[in-house]
Design a protein that fits this description.
By secondary structure, this protein is α+β, with helices and mostly antiparallel strands. The protein is built from four helices and nine strands. The longest helix is centred in the first third of the chain and has 22 residues.
Length: 176
Amino acid sequence: MASKAVEYIKGFINPDDKKTKIIVVIGLIGLVLILASSFFDGKKDNVKSDDYKCIDYEDYAENLELKLTDIINSIDGAGECKVMITLENSAENVYATDVETKTDNNSSNQKDKYVFYDSSNGESPVLIKEYLPKVQGVTVLCNGGDNIAVKEKIIQCVTSLFNIPTNRVSVSKIKS
């Protein structure tokens, strides 16, 4: 039975036929491409597109300080300044949950489970919202820090930008 199959295949493939040689070469090229594609997988392990950006809090505070420094430098009479911002705590993430409630005659049970989705690197929870850290206090040192009018403008600017009370803002004259 096996010899009949081999004879049939030999009869089908004529080594002298150019069309058969071309078909065999194209088939081999296809196999090589399929094997090569497994080595060059489309997924990049070092880049996680589904992951959320990680926040570096020092960079976040430094970015806020630079922006605030530019704004305060624009205030008339403030002059050159230095700014330091302190943050209350780290960011807070809110994830999607599935609430399951079971009620009996006399009691009720509530069970919360996080909602997951399939990503390229396994299951990940569904992030609904991320709250950045709040500003706790601001210190400003500037050339015009001894001028009461300039000091008031700076305090009003900082309190309105970060929604913090005036007792959490310190403005002083910079050391000459």
